Amino acid sequence: SDCKKTKDEL
Amino acid sequence: MNAFRLVGDLCHLAAIVLLLLKIWKSRSVAGLSGKSQILFGLVFVTRYLDLVTNFVSPYNTIMKVFFLSSSIATVYLIYTKFKATYDGNHDTFRMEFLLIPCALLAIVVNHEFSPMEILWTFSIYLEAVAILPQLFMISKTGEAETITSHYLFALGSYRGLYIMNWLYRYYYENNFDVIAVVAGIVQTVLYCDFFYLYITKVLQGKKLQLPA
C-alpha cells in the first residue's frame, strides 16, 4: 500500500 | 523531503535542545514531567528499531541517533542527576492509562500484523498522547517556566508542520498514511489549549499562568 512510502519520515 | 517536514524536524530538534538547555543552565528539572520524557524515550526506541537495518539517508540516521540519545539523556538527567529538583508530587499522571490503550490499539489497528509494524504503530499512537503527563502537571502546578513553554510550543508546532507535510505529500506525491495523519491531528489538537495560552500570555511577555 502507498502508506509505506512515508516511512522515510522521522 | 519538503519545507514543512524540514522545518518540522528542526522545531522538534529545537524543542529537545531547549529542554536540555533549560535543565543544564538552571541545574533543575522543576516543572518537567519525567513521565512524559519516559514516554518520548519509548516512542523513539520503538520507532527507530530499524535504525541499523533500514538506511534512508544520512540526515535520517543522524536525526534518529540524536533524538534517541537526547531523550534517554533527558530521562537520565531527570531521574538521577537532578533528581533532587524533580517534582514527583505533581507528576502523577498514570502512564499505564496511555501505554495499555496505545498497545491494544496498535495490535488491532495497524497496516501489517508484524512485530516491527506493530511497534512502529504503537510509537505513533504513544507520541500523540505522550505530552499529556506534562500538560497535566502544568494544570496541577498552575504555571510553567517561560523556557518550558517555549519547549512545548516548539514540540507542538513540529507535529502541526508534519500535518502540512502530509497534505503536501498527499497532493504531490500521492503518499498517505492514515494512521500517522490521524494520530498527528490528535497530537496537535492536544496542544491547542496550550497554544492559546502561549500566544496570549507568553508572547506578551507574561509568565504562563493557568487561570486558577
From TrEMBL, chain B:
GO terms for cellular component: endoplasmic reticulum membrane. Pfam families: ER_lumen_recept. It is found in: Endoplasmic reticulum membrane. It comes from Bugula neritina (Brown bryozoan). The chain crosses the membrane at residues 62-80, 92-113, 119-139, 151-172, 178-199. Coiled coil: none annotated. InterPro entries: ER_ret_rcpt. PROSITE patterns: ER_LUMEN_RECEPTOR_1 (PS00951), ER_LUMEN_RECEPTOR_2 (PS00952). Its main location: endoplasmic reticulum. One of its GO terms (molecular function) is ER retention sequence binding. GO terms for biological process: protein retention in ER lumen; protein transport; vesicle-mediated transport. The keyword Transport applies. It comes from the Eukaryota. It is a multi-pass membrane protein. This is ER lumen protein-retaining receptor. Belongs to the ERD2 family. Keywords: Endoplasmic reticulum, ER-Golgi transport, Membrane, Protein transport, Receptor, Transmembrane, Transmembrane helix, Transport. The keyword Nucleotidyltransferase does not apply.
